[in-house]
Amino acid sequence: MIVLGVESSCDECAVAVVKDGSELLGQVVHSQIEEHEQYRGVVPEIASRQHTQHILPVYRQAIRESGITAADIDIVAVTTHPGLSGSLLVGTTFAKGLALGLDRPLVSVNHILAHLYAPRLSGPVDWPCLGLLVSGGHTMIVRMDDWQTLTVLGATVDDACGEAFDKVARYHGFGYPGGKAVDALASGGDETAYEFPGSSLKGDSHDLDLSYSGIKTAVTVQASRFLRPGKEASAENLAASFQRVAIGMIMKRLDRAVQQTGIHRLVVGGGVAANSRLRRELAARTHLQLAIPPLSLCTDNAAMVAAIGYEYAISGRFVNLDVPVGARVAGYKAAY
Length: 336
Ligand code: KG4
Ligand code: ZN
Fold this sequence. Notes:
By secondary structure, the chain is an alpha/beta fold. Helix content is 38%, strand content 19%. The structure holds 5'-O-[(R)-(carboxyoxy)(hydroxy)phosphoryl]adenosine and zinc ion (ZN).
């Protein structure tokens, strides 16, 4: 079964072709980094216009590179939620037009579930397992009983981890996009130079929730207060010290989740899964059966959308052409 996936929830305009849910035939991702760089953040109006401009050429190139023709497409899958409304509308409208024109069924994909499905493109996964989603919009630990059944065990109560990376980079002028810039700077820094506070919600040692607002404030406006005596105040040291705490907060909750559930299988997804420190810390936990995507499938892409679209299709979860887009998933611990 050939599924064509469309992703336009934020600032990546992507189309991919996946065979039988796990074989990536081809993908084209048009990134809008240059357009948003001068604003040091994604500008929704610019993002929508960029998607409108690029969706058709991206689709045509993806079809070419996959070695198929439009007639070979069996299913069209598209991210319909959550994300930026205008951006989602462009990809969703395009996918609806394609499904209608080709007379093929349409599948509506949840972007969060798609991120957690990305590791499936590298090999099979057994159930139940834990899922760690760390992106610019979400930070959560979930229990997964299959690809579509998630129970949120813990989540950020305020900023997402990637958002904290982006805001720290923006405040200190480290570059754009922020997460990657902080990661690169951190590799040359002393991670013990600053002693930033981690989050301790309710002081509850069983809690799996976390918060990034405190560390974000500490690392931006209050940074100098946390410099250890005798250490140098440099961008590298600050980035490394922030990264140690930001990733450490996740690892602490993850270790707790493994202990509380007794589940040792873990799938990881989302842009922050590209972080070198997170990947190192995960790899060091040799008791975990880890499924983590390659860097190119951590950040937003359409391969994950097409791949999970296959799962939806084989269970007959098709949608009508009037399916709406949804900007948000209600509540930070919303049911999926
Ligand atoms: O999954 P994604 O592409 O979009 C969302 O669904 O949000 O994630 C983007 C986020 C951004 O906040 C970006 O700064 C972060 O992932 N990110 C990283 C790294 N690469 C991307 N954060 C830390 N280290 C990285 N290497
Ligand atoms: Zn994403």
